[in-house]
């Protein structure tokens, strides 16, 4: 089993790629959990029009931008990534909402 090094400790591209691959696996697991909350939202919401909530979307993007800045990352870049994540989450929730009431 490959030992995953912290970024500052990497000396080869093999080590860098192993770290990136590990992070990707962890992110997928977190996204599966996040989408589980979309399943819950689809189950709880009684009105399909409430699936898209622009105020909540703006709040999520603002939260991410603040967290990115605090972590020393570019807020606009992370906001763009999260915008896509939120849009995919909304689309997924709408599909799940329809499936539950189909």
UniProtKB/TrEMBL annotation:
It is an enzyme of class 5 (isomerase). InterPro entries: Chorismate_II_sf, Chorismate_mutase-related, CM_dom_sf, CM_II_prokaryot, Isochorismate_pyruvate-lyase. Residues 7-97 form the Chorismate mutase domain. Keywords: Isomerase. Its EC number is 5.4.99.5. This is chorismate mutase.
